């Protein structure tokens, strides 16, 4: 596990999907990440995907874009992800967390639809977030020399 | 922009309205019920009037809903407005109304128009209040007045920061300034409009002094424009002594800051956070809200329902909620005594905290620009803001007794004495619950679920609602 001190240079972009105005979980996750030492650019509620892309353009060192979606409309709100990725934007892991479809019974197909759009990771519990970011970070660090050599 | 006695309006909305003399004549018709009269009577009786939230899209369904709720004995009934109308998307509201009105989460009064509004107001004997969440409620206010409705909720802070991502406070404060100014004009013509201020804010762990500072500043702005009747709403937090002290503080702060020209009525919004899942425990909390309202001297209580954990309630559940809240305030519970010394201590500190928040703003000169500047710097702040125009550096926590305290006061300009007391009160809670900040905040938000689990054997197996953290913003 990384320490808070080592995470200080690590930046993530956080926000809530475009059609979603749930602020409480967003603030709590922002607090959690800062408590663990991350620098958090929090775009807040009702954020269109294009604004996540703009934020990543401004902070190309960000190691992930974290999108909360609690109203079940993640698939609609993230519909432009393939287009943005094709244009070379949002070139970092996109992590979507929350309540991923309408209705109380979740189906594997709901998750697959989001993976098909290009979402890299889906989380249903915010407590898994720091671990995921550390794993991604470690994998990125291990890969970096190869990229330089390649 | 068209104009109704200083109230700037969308020209299309203005074109549909009757002229000012007709509006005024209708408002002054003898026998029309007005909220201010209900509030005065409840205050004199020492028992709060009860009011439900209620609003559906279709006109006939709205009429039926009001008629179904009236026999439960509410003092005032609500016209809860849909989200599109709140955001002045009148065309969208109109389109949904023409398609399937059930897609609207409230009554689109502007789209239905003032004639149908009058039909609603005349269908029941009790007055109506328009409840919404509009950062700019001017058009809605004009239609409400033309419909004969003289109770209107909202304010430039409380109806902006919890509801909208990016409406500048300068805009919402000035829109509500025009609403208040028209209330001043009406007061001079003998029509008293009850203006309710939404101290409930984001409804999640709101420290009393944050709620009371916001509504006091909105009240000062309203009184400056000539408003003569204010209902100041405070959200039940869950710790009885703190809630009673906060309700009493509404009156003591009004005496200190607002002067004798304005009537001020404290209102309790029954618990707005994550609600118990069993009808039994939910009903207990609704009943207790009625009792807390009476003990705190509230003039009005907005009831909850046993279906709260699951979405918008049906009429039968809402009627039962009205009755439960009224029973909680009824004489069968008049034997209940509280620890007055503990309430007095809470009241003292709440008044001091509000003074430390509000007085620097008042000292800065122009009130509205002072409010904007204070939110920009974080000297005024609310937790869990949906708006980017509040910094939300404030982190609330429950203490060992469940009272809401400041774990982090952000940039609020509190004195050392206030900050030390807050830290002392939370020290016990920190020791008892050594958890991460997020775990602790989540437990504090789920406060009544845990109490329900401990009080009712056999509820431990109940799943948490789909995503409880998502339910309130």
UniProtKB/TrEMBL annotation, chain A:
Q: Which PROSITE patterns match?
A: B12_BINDING
Stretches assigned to the B12-binding domain = 9-146
- List all membrane-crossing ranges: none
Short name of any one Pfam family annotated for the protein: B12-binding
Name of protein: B12-binding domain-containing protein
The superkingdom of the source organism is: Bacteria
UniProtKB/TrEMBL annotation, chain B:
Keywords, A to Z, come to: Cobalamin, Cobalt, Isomerase
Gene3D superfamilies, alphabetized: Methylmalonyl-CoA mutase
Return the Pfam families for the record. Answer: Met_asp_mut_E (PF06368)
Q: Which InterPro entries match?
A: Cbl-dep_enz_cat (IPR016176), Glu_mut_E (IPR006396)
* Highest taxon in the source lineage: Bacteria
Name of the protein in question: Methylaspartate mutase
What organism is the protein native to? Kitasatospora kazusensis
What are the top taxonomic ranks of the organism? Bacteria, Bacillati, Actinomycetota, Actinomycetes, Kitasatosporales
